[in-house]
Amino acid sequence: MSDFRTGRLPVPGASLNYEIRGSGPLLLLLQGGDGNTARGAGLAERLATDYTVVLPDRRGLSGSTLDDPAAPVTVATHADDTHRLLAALTDEPARIFGSSYGALIALTLAGDHPEQVGTLVAHDPATICLLPVPARDRAARDLAALDEVYRKEGARSALRKLAELVHADFSDTEPDVVPPAPREPGDLNDLNFFLSRDLPEIRSSGLHAERVAALATTAVRVVPAAGRGSRKIWNYDCARALAALLGTEVTEFPGGHSLSTHPAAFTARLHEVLADDRRPAAQAAKQH
């Protein structure tokens, strides 16, 4: 195992739990869904050979506790948490990999604090706000259908619906990859929080096309990315829309929406994309 340590950061209304692995330039991982430090540990460990990998629990998930469980939690809230976490760890622009909801948070952060972001890889971004109206309506209907299943049938049924919407496919994996085991009752807390608190925020995000397009005038390098297996879902359309706003192309990754079907190939691709960093300055993390 790489060099490993944990930390906590008090922020307004919450306390953030995070893990740090490895050494080198700082790389922040922002997961989607109910991705917590346990779920992201494999990717973080593989990347820690070359980076100081920071893996947080998003506010409300696992170790990142809320002072008031009923207080609103928005995309802007998560972006501000991320801003504060980066400010505590480094004085330099950071590399960020954000997937799905995590990509939405990362793009919001980049719009608010471009000085904190060097390279941002936005994988299968949940940025329906950037889609043209027909595609945006389709995505909104999908999210509304998912919300209805959750409210009527609970988290397990909603998870199956979500897998259907993102075309989750564990029939095509690298050798030795095992499909996710059914969730245990005690493992549903984070999923419930995501479905009830975070998911509705995708439809009301304050991220707009003008703010994203403005990133092209900053030093932030945004890499719109998507899984090859995501071509038929709206997250890929979001990556295309992001690329069009920035005058670039979609960078494809092995697998689909999930980060776990092709772990070795996915990690190699991310290493490759991050290594193509046009900014000369290296980013070193503060030591804690």
Automatic annotation (TrEMBL):
Q: AB hydrolase-1 domain: which residues?
A: 25-184
Q: Which UniProt keywords apply?
A: Hydrolase
GO BP terms in the entry: glycerolipid catabolic process
What is the scientific name of the source organism?
Nocardia jinanensis
Which Pfam families would you find in this protein's record?
Abhydrolase_1 (PF00561)
Is Hydrolase among this UniProt entry's keywords? yes
PANTHER family linked = AB HYDROLASE-1 DOMAIN-CONTAINING PROTEIN, HYDROLASE, ALPHA/BETA FOLD FAMILY PROTEIN
Q: Which GO terms describe its molecular function?
A: triacylglycerol lipase activity
Question: What SUPFAM superfamilies does the database record attribute to this sequence?
Answer: alpha/beta-Hydrolases
Q: What is this protein called?
A: Hydrolase
Instruction: Say yes or no: keyword Hydrolase present.
Output: yes
